[in-house]
Amino acid sequence: MMAYAIRDFRSEDAVPVAALTLKAIHEVGAQSYNPEQVAAWAAHHPAPERFTERASAGAHIKVAANADDIAVAYALLEPDGHLDMLYCHPDHTRRGLADELLAECEMKARTLSLTRLYTEASDLARPAFERAGYAMQHRRDFTIGLAGKAVPIHNYAMEKPLN
């Protein structure tokens, strides 16, 4: 079994984090979303520099790094308790990394005295959030623009109170 370390994001993680996001959308996302939805989703993923900018602006990014200290999964927690991103490289799924990252984000939220965490989870991420104690509020149906077309897609508004 491969060993992982959960740590804070560093600027050198920006390129691997952006790359694993795209790979996860294309390979894992394709398990629940059609090719047009995957293409639209991928077209709107952040460039590497956005991760560094968001971290500098106060976002807390927790990274799961492999034995070579390369980011293979991450979660991005905004200062208001919004868990904006949770992605895992397809070669590293089903190893408990999402659970560990969500637990780390919850610990960080508690140190910030936040009263709740909330997210918009994909079909694929929803089970990880449910295991972590998030409750589904409702399904969100919306569109993402792709080449001048509005592509319908969905996710789930989920929330976890912190008592």
What does this structure look like?
- With 163 residues, the protein is an alpha+beta fold.
- Helix content is 33%, strand content 34%.
- It has 5 helices and 7 strands; from the N terminus they run βαααβββαβαββ.
- The protein has helices spanning 14-28, 35-43, 48-56, 97-111, 126-131; strands spanning 5-8, 60-65, 71-77, 82-88, 116-121, 135-146, 149-161.
- Strands 1-2-3-4-5-7-6 form a 7-stranded mixed beta sheet, sandwiched between helices.
- Strand 6 and strand 7 form a beta hairpin.
- The longest helix is centred in the first third of the chain and has 15 residues, at 14-28.
- It is globular.
- The mean pLDDT is 94.
Give a summary of the structure in a few sentences.
The protein has 163 residues and is of the alpha+beta class. Helices cover 33% and strands 34% of the residues. A seven-stranded mixed beta sheet has the order 1-2-3-4-5-7-6, sandwiched between helices.
Percent helix: 25-40%
The unreliable regions are none
Mean pLDDT, to the nearest integer, reads: 94
Shape: globular
Lateral strand order in the biggest sheet: 1-2-3-4-5-7-6
The radius of gyration is 15 Å
Number of strands: 7
Distance between the termini: 35 Å
Strand residues, percent: 25-35%
Largest sheet: 7 strands, mixed
How would you describe the oligomerization state of the chains in this entry? single chain
- Secondary structure class reads alpha+beta
Number of helices: 5
- Helices and strands, in N-to-C order? EHHHEEEHEHEE
